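Hey L., structure's done. Input below.
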Amino acid sequence: MKKNMLITGSILGLLAVIFGAFGAHGLKESLTPEALNSFETGVRYQMYHALLMLLAAASFSLSQKALKALFYLLLSGILLFSGSIYLLTTRPLTGIDISAIAWVTPIGGALLIAGWALLVFNFIRFTK
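Output:
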C-alpha cells in the first residue's frame, strides 16, 4: 500500500503542477477571474492532498488498514473535489456540462475531511 500511495501521490502532485501552470498561462485569457480562482482552488487542494498522501506513506506509523482507508479517501476526494472544479470552471472551453452533478464537489470535500479525521483518530490512538 505504501508504494501505491507514493506513486499515486507523486502522480497527483505532478498533475497539480501541470494543471497549475496550465491555469496560470493557458486559461488566464479564457476564463473569468472567478472561474480562474476556482480552478486554482482545485489545484491547491489537489497538491495539498498529494503531499499528504506522500507524507503518510513515507513517514506515518499507520496500520495497513488505516493507510488503505486514507489512500481511498484522499484519492476519491481529490477526484471528486478537484476534478469537478476543473470541469465546472472550464465548461465554456470544453463544452462539458456537469452542473447537474455538481453536488459531487462537496462530497469530494467531505471525503478529504474524512481523511484528515482518520489521521486525527489514529494519532490520538497512537502509542509507541
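The CA atoms of residues 21 and 27 lie 9 Å apart. Residues 2-125 form one domain.

-- N.
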